[in-house]
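Most newcomers find our protein records easier to grasp once they have seen one. A learned vocabulary of local backbone shapes supplies the integers on the structure line. An example says more than a description, so a record of this kind follows:
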Amino acid sequence: MRSDAYTLSFPVWVEFGTDVSEGVGPILDSKGWQRPMVVTDPGIIDAGLLDGIERSLESAGIEYVVYDGVEPNPTTAMVEEATELLEAEGCDAIVAVGGGSVLDVGKGASLLATNPGSISDYEVTSGQEVCAGPIDRHTLPLITIPTTAGTGSEVDYWAVITDEDREFKMAIGQPPLSPGGPYLGAEVALVDPALTASLPPRQTAATGFDAFSHALEIHVSAVSPPIVRPFTRHVLGLVPEYLPQAYEGGDPEARKRMLFGSHVAGICENLGGFGAIHSLAEATGGMYPEIPHGEAIAAYTPSVMEYNSQAVPERYAEVAAAMGVEVSGRTDEAAAREAITAVERLIERVDLPSGLRELGVAEDDLPVIARKATETIEIHDNPRAADGEDLLEIARNAY
């Protein structure tokens, strides 16, 4: 097993490297966790990505149960079902193995296992709620093992869960508000690039662009501290270089670089904010759960960049430079336009949708999507104020 192990400035122990996921059994045993629930989805099982993890658990003499009912854009019902199984089986830890949807269900179940109420009780709609902290009790121990290079959910403090009744994606999250305080997230993250090798091209493109969008929105966000920008710049340069190679397949180094970029962007999520791209994409995903999150992100990104660059062209000039665009001698406004062009080329290069029409979104739904986007927490961090009419105009431009 080759890994780089470290503890971040928040309480997550991370191992990054080849075959680190096979160490899950000894880690559980060392911490005294003897009855974990493995949260995953049928695709992970069919691809054989649990095999090494199961061998590790069995070699350590650890009995476990499996919840494999996760689907893309996870719902409150999935979290509740996973929690019910966890409680019925007397589990004392969770091992979440999969993409962002699986990791978010694992977080939700870890929260409800030790805290009262339903997952919707922990929805966050303002920065004030994040600072106040709705989570009073430590969540059940959670180990995250990502199989996509996209969400960074293995190390962030957020879960996105769809309220089916409202057709709305809720933001659930909390950092530790004091040393040793409760938080939403993993205690251990095992980040193994080999587990992303079998990801099909379409999912590779969508999840990889999602990682890019995290760095992009955090870099220009109104609330992100300057300390995150060297890291977001790195991701903004890394993804355009390696995502096309990962999309075409057969390049382990590209997979490794993409997972590292996703991981770094996930760390930055704990320090910065998002914006209108995620607001609109999540409002769309709540109404159209069949649309992959990363594809909705791609459809909105150029139009949001066009809108925001009128307020902070200097930030988008930095994005252009990070992507390898020659910006010397250009005004910030001209460089910002080049950033939009470079992003459009990346979307085209990996065959992601260039508009909402391609995703099957009904044009008549755009006003509802815009209204719901105003209710998301992300819109408060957008670098340019955007009300419902502004967001509707962006959505129409993205159509």
